[in-house]
Amino acid sequence: MKPDTTQAMSDLINQIKSALPLDQSEIITCTGQCKVCPEKLIEYISMELDNWEYRLQSGEKPNFKDLNKLAKTGVKIHTALDKKGFLD
Question: Is residue 22 part of a domain?
Answer without folding.
Answer: no
